[in-house]
Amino acid sequence: MDRLRERLSQAKNEVEFEAIAREAQLNRWHQHAKFCSLCGGGLEQHPEVVIARQCIQCQHIHYPAISPCIIVLITRGTQCLLAHASKYPAGRYSTLAGFIEPGESAEQAVQREVKEEVGIDVCNIRYINSQAWPFPHSLMLGYFADYASGEIKPDGVEILDARWFEYHQLPDLPPEYSISRQLIRRFCNQHETIV
Q1: Which tens digit of pLDDT belongs to each residue from 109-138?
Q2: What are the DSSP calls for 55-76, one per residue?
Q3: CATH homologous superfamily for the domain 67-194
Q4: For the chain, what are the domain ranges?
Q5: How far apart are CA 29 and CA 52, in angstroms?
Q6: At what angle do helices 14-32 and 2-9 cross, to 10 degrees?
Q7: What is the pTM (predicted TM-score) of this model?
Q8: Separate counts of helices (H) and strands (E) for the chain
């Protein structure tokens, strides 16, 4: 995973970033998609569909799993909340993210993840854009949310530190073409236009 993160951080442009992410997701799926989840039979490459495998016993067609996730930039005026996760290099801060749970809307996941990870409440949740993310096979749904109430309290497990940053005084950020960086850039651009 560290090598994949390194490759993504060195992508020359968004097209290369997306190609690396797609390749990683499909390679991982092909490594793990060996047996049919319905009958236990072996899977082989589908004869016509490139991203599908077919059971040699029951003929059921299997496609790569995609796990929906949210990623959110929380804002408070000219500030945004960024967090240092346990898996990040020293000094790196990013937006908050998490998987959407069964029976939960993406907006509900935003509220829950933010509360669980940093202890605050958010409002005015709005969808911005999405991005395939190969850790391991996610579709990140990007949001902005406004701070509503509460004091920042990192969970100490996933999130080790979180704080407010002015849009013009940001720490080390994720790779240029990541959705996290896109959300942060969009927020900063909005404020540079106003100021």
Answers
A1: 999 999 999 999 999 999 999 998 877 788
A2: ETTT--EE----EEEEEEEEEE
A3: Nucleoside Triphosphate Pyrophosphohydrolase (3.90.79.10)
A4: 2-62, 67-194
A5: 10
A6: 160
A7: 0.84
A8: 4, 9
